[in-house]
Write a structure and sequence with these properties.
Mean pLDDT: 94
CATH architecture: 3-Layer(aba) Sandwich
Number of domains: 1
Radius of gyration: 18 Å
Largest sheet: 9 strands, mixed
Bound molecules: zinc ion
Helix content: 10-25%
Structural class: alpha/beta
């Protein structure tokens, strides 16, 4: 499989808090998800020729993994158009975290990309709400992320075809964190976790999701599990009580 791991910044431009979270650079952390497998990985960034998204590069890409935060406006309309056209023709695309506001995602989702946000270094509970989907194969019912940026509803994400994950934040917000779109011959996945100053992409559950998503986007999905029937209607204690007890220690 040919993977294009694209970030608005070149690896050497990533410094400060990003370097602290990802000493090897964010692109390498995403590439680590696919290490030891028979894939060809290409890295791209915005200061390259044709912004790293040339016709030639996209033509040989099976799945694009796209991360961007601050430079969305600097991506040319032509580059966004090229990405969208290649998805329609069959390329898979995974839009990570703040790529919700990127031109190619807005074009493909037919949404505004808008949401509410807050960076307060609090935790996120990511719930797997579609466990029979190939992207959720082998993914636990809940992934606890000690720190991530809050993204909340309403999310101007257009009309997704499937909702796979929902994020919950201690401020009381929820977010449709994992969404699919079928566009022409191509498949698109949006995935919310992944603020650049927290090492979210090193979490084994998140890595599993990224791997599953790339396989699914390339049309080679993991086998989906049967939808698990709950073994009982269980009485449970509130999850957040445990967090308060931990913090008091
Ligand atoms: Zn962010």
């Amino acid at each position: 499989m040919n993977l294009l791991i694209w970030n608005e910044h070149a690896p050497e431009e990533q410094h400060g808090a990003i370097r602290k979270a990802y000493p090897e650079g964010m692109q390498q952390a995403v590439a680590d998800v696919f290490r030891g497998e028979n894939h060809t990985i290409t890295f791209g960034w915005q200061s390259q020729k044709d912004q790293g998204l040339s016709e030639e590069v996209l033509a040989k890409t099976d799945v694009l993994l796209y991360w961007a935060h601050c430079l969305h406006d600097q991506l040319s309309d032509a580059a966004a158009e090229r990405v969208a056209a290649h998805v329609e023709a069959g390329m898979g695309a995974i839009f990570l975290h703040s790529a919700h506001w990127s031109k190619p995602f807005k074009k493909l989702s037919k949404g505004t990309g808008t949401l509410v946000w807050r960076e307060d270094k609090k935790h996120e509970r990511l719930f797997n709400v579609n466990p029979s989907h190939p992207i959720a194969s082998g993914v636990p019912c809940e992934i606890f992320l000690p720190k991530d940026e809050m993204y909340g509803e309403p999310f101007g994400c257009g009309q997704p075809d499937e909702i796979i994950f929902i994020g919950w934040f201690p401020g009381g917000e929820i977010f449709r964190s994992g969404l699919t779109y079928y566009r022409g011959k191509g498949r698109v996945f949006y995935f919310q976790p992944g603020h650049e100053t927290f090492p979210v992409y090193k979490n084994p559950g998140i890595m599993k999701i990224l791997h599953n998503a790339a396989m699914w986007a390339a049309g080679k999905p993991e086998k989906s599990a049967p939808y698990p029937a709950a073994d009982a209607c269980k009485y449970v204690l509130p999850k957040e009580i445990g967090i308060r007890l931990l913090k008091r220690k």
